[in-house]
Design brief:
The structure holds two protein chains of two kinds. Chain A is of the alpha/beta class. Chain A is 37% helix and 17% strand. Chain A has three domains: 168 residues, Thiamin diphosphate (ThDP)-binding fold, Pyr/PP domains (Rossmann fold), CATH 3.40.50; 161 residues, TPP-binding domain (Rossmann fold, 3-Layer(aba) Sandwich); 180 residues, 3-Layer(aba) Sandwich (Rossmann fold), CATH 3.40.50.970. In chain A, helix 1 crosses helix 2, helix 3 runs parallel beside helix 4 and helix 11 runs antiparallel to helix 14. Chain B folds into two domains: 107 residues, Alpha-Beta Plaits (2-Layer Sandwich), CATH 3.30.70.260; 66 residues, ACT-like. Chain A, domain 2 (Alpha-Beta Plaits). Chain B is elongated, with a radius of gyration of 20 Å. The chains are: A alpha/beta, B alpha+beta. At the A-B interface, helix 8 and strand 14 of A face helix 1, helix 2, strand 4 and helix 5 of B. The complex binds thiamine diphosphate and magnesium ion. Magnesium ion binds next to helix 18 of chain A. The site of thiamine diphosphate (TPP) has 19 residues of chain A, from helix 16, helix 18 and helix 20.
Chain lengths: 560, 186
């Protein structure tokens, strides 16, 4: 049967299971928008393409499915760029579809022509420029396959306007032909055996749990492995939730703002089991002194991550869940009592410095507020964050026991991510409670999406942690630039009025005693709400490993 | 040290750009890159010579990143494999009739050819290994090279031997190589 290119695109994405698309129309994608009306697609009209990209990203992270976002050619596509890079850095499966000028105009600087495949080449897992309708079916099939398989990531399809309107015979490609793309599942037996030998010898092993655990749905395998070998589990920022925070083997977050005892454990370990993580500089500190006594086993699906930052003793390249399932029957049971005791001693020592022990002085501290939200929501909400101090505090104090509820821009550190990601996550499961924790700075980058939330009835609870500063930058200036504050004082609009102007019920909280009631109020409302918390202005996130320092050289919160 | 890789890639628009962009993005220095068709119309073949200051560790990174490109089908490192490598150069030399014989003599020694003769210049074509071409260029230089073009190196392993593939999991590769690499890490 003959169909237009635009119809074929929808036909294919619907068959791949796409139900919701976040986008913005314009000249070069109008045929796609026209054809969309005939397909079972819910389209969310965003206020800025960056918002749409983060929504598709949040949807993908929360649902485990492929997200989809669209924009028109030229500025529509360039507005997506930050969102594409964000998804790339965190390996999130999102398919981006952009309109492009007609094929015969390409290269002529036509109206709204931008070289989108050129711009996005280094920030996509793969991308396509489609100039003919008869290419579309295969390209869409390939794009979704590539986005969700192997190490997931964003794929962009730039479709020329003529290809959208031309008619061609539609045959759904049953198979995908990608000769150069074969992600591996199993690691070879002899490598597994070498890993087992290292595990046998280890006295002080530690598991580093990364985003890959979630991507590979390996949470159960991780639990089995950790319990069987009694190996403590530290998590990267993006790995949080993959292993229950309340479990006795859980060490919480590692790295720059990780727990003291966790970083100490890494530095003193004799075996690192890196599961689906990539030794980012934010988790290793300086490489010169990183885990100097540890042998390293790295289970990783992307061979280019092996030996990239840290060279390892046994690389196991494959799908984490598959490799762990192969490995578990091969390892013995251990107890590692001494080692766990040692870590607990470090922990008790560090706990005495915790801000959670502070007595109520009537002021608002973000860590306390996060703990309050955690209590009120039973720790079960989906939580997104923006980027900055509030992000680190949320990572530290919203203790997650379940996977895929923690949505934060880790690799890219993209301010403006929180609110749109929360809206996207709500579409993944509308029965879920969703909180977006944002800073006063980052919230303003994508605040316009409040109206999108209203238009869609998205039940997202925004908590703005207003410290009147670009807090994280201020903290660095305080610590490393002799408190010479430069461009970090931020005047904000009246957030309550701003929210109300968007039609969003809002409150301001300035006192300790108003906190619980405000959280309860937000939770009682169906639809978006905003609470602005006026928090302490010059608090700092501790512990902190200064950039370039060794992982155990942490600045700790001064005793009070 | 220079390493030589052979990459088989899908013959599609934009693939060369993807490869070149990868080297730029990952901060590797391409010494030469030659692309052409193969016996299979759907497959193109690249020979890439890259400076690898960290030896095999860099070679592993290059291979693994090349594989990551969806359009790259196979990558081999032929640096240490017995192989035939060839580069072709056209060299224009400014000589009048009085010195043509000298150029001719040199060309004969190097089994090069004079492929064009003009009133004030000749073009010499030479094929061979890098070393041989460099050698000839050195001797021609005093005569006055006005223009030169080189294709960049192409390579093919001898016999049935393939080059080294370090990326585990791909075409049945083993992991020993990778583990040995760990010892050499900087
Ligand atoms: C798009 C973007 N621009 C700049 C930065 C650099 N940056 C990182 S944290 C931060 C401050 C964020 O301030 P705010 O949103 O108020 O959060 P706070 O740190 O105060 O909690 C800045 C500017 C960034 N991460 N992203
Ligand atoms: Mg702030």
């Amino acid at each position: 049967m003959k169909k237009t290119g635009a119809e074929i695109m929808w036909e294919c994405v619907v068959r791949e299971g796409v139900e919701v698309v976040f986008g913005y129309p314009g000249g070069a994608n109008m045929p796609i928008y026209d054809a969309m009306l005939s397909y079972p697609i819910h389209h969310v009209l965003v206020r800025h393409e960056q918002g749409g990209a983060h929504m598709a990203d949040g949807y993908a992270r929360a649902s485990g499915k492929v997200g989809m976002a669209m924009g028109t050619s030229g500025p529509g596509a360039t507005n997506l760029v930050t969102g594409i890079a964000t998804a790339m850095m965190d390996s999130v499966p999102v398919v981006f579809v952009t309109g492009q000028v007609a094929a015969h105009l390409i290269g002529g600087d036509a109206f709204q022509e931008v070289d989108v495949t050129g711009i996005t080449l280094p920030i996509t897992k793969h991308n396509y420029l489609v100039t003919r309708a008869d290419e579309i079916a295969e390209v869409v099939r390939e794009a979704l396959t590539i986005a969700r398989s192997g190490r997931p990531g964003p794929v962009l399809i730039d479709i020329c306007k003529n290809a959208q309107v031309e008619q061609t015979e539609f045959i759904y490609p049953e198979t995908v032909k990608l000769p150069g793309y074969q992600p591996v599942d199993h690691a070879p037996k002899d490598s597994l055996e070498r890993a087992v030998k290292l595990i046998e010898k280890a006295q002080r092993p530690i598991i580093l749990c990364g985003h890959g655990v979630l991507m590979s749905k390996a949470e159960e395998a991780l639990m089995q492995f950790a319990v069987k070998t009694q190996t403590p589990v530290a998590s990267t920022l993006l790995g949080l939730g993959a292993f229950p925070a309340s479990h006795e083997l859980s060490l919480g977050m590692m790295g720059m703002h990780g727990e003291v005892h966790t970083n100490m454990a890494i530095q003193n370990s004799d075996l690192i089991l890196a599961f689906g993580m990539r030794f980012d500089d934010r988790v290793t500190g300086t490489l010169k002194t990183y885990a100097p006594h540890a042998k390293k086993i790295h289970i990783e699906i992307d061979p280019s991550e092996v030996h990239k930052n840290v060279s390892v003793d046994v690389p196991l390249v494959g799908d984490l869940k598959t490799v762990l399932s192969d490995l578990i029957p091969m390892v013995d049971e251990y107890d590692h009592e001494e080692w766990k005791k040692q870590i607990n001693e470090w922990k008790s020592e560090a706990d005495t410095r915790s801000i959670m022990n502070w007595e109520d002085d009537g002021k608002l501290y973000v860590p306390h507020l996060i703990a309050d939200i955690w209590k009120a929501t039973g720790g079960g909400a989906i939580v997104t964050t923006d980027v900055g101090q509030h992000q680190m505090w949320t990572a530290q104090y919203y203790q997650l026991d379940k996977p895929n509820r923690w949505l934060t821009s880790g690799g890219a550190g993209t301010m403006g991510f929180g609110l749109p990601a929360a809206i996207g996550a709500w579409f993944a499961d509308k029965t879920q409670e969703v909180w977006a924790v944002a800073g006063d700075g980052g919230f303003q980058m994508t605040a316009a999406e409040l109206t999108t939330a209203v238009q869609e009835g998205a039940n997202v609870k925004v908590a703005i942690m207003n410290n009147s500063f670009l807090g994280m930058v201020r903290q660095w200036q305080e610590f490393f630039f002799e408190k010479r504050y430069s461009a970090v004082n931020m005047l904000s609009p009246d957030f309550v009025k701003l929210a109300e102007a968007h039609g969003v019920p809002a409150r301001r909280v300035t006192k300790r005693e108003e906190v619980d009631e405000a959280i309860a109020w937000a939770r009682s409302i169906q639809g978006p709400t905003v609470i602005e918390f006026r928090v302490e202005q010059e608090e700092a996130v501790y512990p902190m490993v200064p950039a370039g320092a060794a992982l155990d050289q942490m600045l700790q919160r001064p005793a009070r | 040290m220079n390493y030589t890789f052979i990459a088989l890639v899908e013959n599609r628009p934009g693939v060369l750009n993807r490869v070149a962009s990868l080297f730029r993005r990952r901060n590797f220095n391409i010494e030469s890159l030659a692309v052409g068709r193969t016996e299979d119309p759907e497959v193109s073949r690249m020979t890439v010579v890259v400076d690898c200051p960290n030896g095999d560790m860099d070679a592993h990174k290059i291979e693994a990143n090349l594989y990551k490109l969806v359009n790259v089908i196979d990558v081999q490192d032929v640096t240490r494999q017995p192989s035939v490598t060839r580069d072709l150069a056209l060299i224009k030399i400014k000589v009048g009739p009085e010195k043509r014989a000298e150029v001719n003599g040199l060309a004969e020694i190097f089994r090069a050819h004079i492929v064009d003769v003009a009133a004030d210049s000749v073009i010499v074509e030479i094929t061979g290994t890098e070393d041989k071409i460099e050698g000839m260029i050195e001797l021609l230089r005093p005569l006055g090279i006005v223009e030169m073009v080189r294709t960049g190196q192409v390579a093919m392993t001898r016999g049935v031997n393939d080059g080294v593939r370090r990326v585990p999991g791909v075409t049945g590769n083993r992991y020993e190589d990778l583990e040995e690499l760990a010892e050499m890490a900087p």
